[in-house]
Amino acid sequence: MNAYLRTAVDLAARGVPVLPLRPGKLPAGNCRTCRDNACGGRPNMKTPGPCDCPHPCHAWAAATTDPAVITGPVWAPVWKQAAAVAYHPGGIALTVVDLDHADAVTWACRTLPATRIVPTTRGEHWIYQGAMQSANHVRDGVDIKSAMSYARWLGTGTGTMTALPDAVRTLIVTKPSPVRLVTAQVPTGSGECRHRTPVYLERGIAMAEQRITEASSAVHATVYRTFLAVLSAHGRCGCLTDAHAARLFAAAQTKGESPRHCTDAWSNALTALGM
């Protein structure tokens, strides 16, 4: 077992979702079809496709605490060539302020409250308790890594971790705007409705909301599978409405999913079901 794999196993045992990085700080395609990103997957994007995998296998969406996956046969050749270990900060309710050079560090020292600091090759990671939307280049040399993102594991660092401050949250705010809940088409089925009462549909939507809300890892995969299940059960008879879809999109966005990803996951589910 090499050093990176030992680190990953140790972190996973402490509840930190991890993934291997190949040279260049890039995650690998972690299934046979996508090995070395042969499928054309976008390892630096917030969605793990496009590819024909039955489950997300790229980037932050691959992060896991499952030792059977981490030490299993699919990841075994990846660890042999790994250049680093990464983790999903948002998966453990953390936010990493990635300061890429000395000027960015100086800015943080003047602007942000003190917290745990991890030295990096050229700068520092400032780690706060609390998750938020990730964003790159929020200012010169500053990236935000939290939900739907990954960060290199570079050690535990020093200092006491503090709560995520508004000074960090506002870095990604450009202008007030309402959250887009639904941008995808709701199918208008013509089949016979098999729901005996509206209660059946309501129960199904409530259970779907709960499944998304309670997801502690692999949020991207959970959202897609939940959309797929809802559309499979309710999408062909015409009972599903924009209001129902809005509730699912809202639940997903509270877990850090972007409106665009919600739309993509919904559209992919429709395509998978031939709707």
Task: Write structural notes for this entry.
This protein folds into three domains: 3-87, no CATH class; 90-172, Bifunctional DNA primase/polymerase domain (Prim-pol fold, 2-Layer Sandwich), CATH 3.30.2250; 198-272, no CATH class. 34% of the residues lie in helices and 15% in strands. The protein contains nine helices and ten strands. The chain has helices spanning 3-13, 67-70, 76-80, 102-111, 166-169, 198-213, 219-234, 242-254, 259-272; strands at residues 18-22, 26-27, 84-87, 94-99, 116-119, 124-129, 135-139, 142-145, 151-152, 162-163. The strands form two sheets. Strands 4, 5, 6, 7, 8 and 10 form a six-stranded mixed beta sheet that branches. It has a four-stranded antiparallel beta sheet with strand order 2-1-3-9, covered by helices on one side. It starts with a helix and ends with a helix. The model is unreliable at 42-50 and 175-182 (pLDDT under 50).
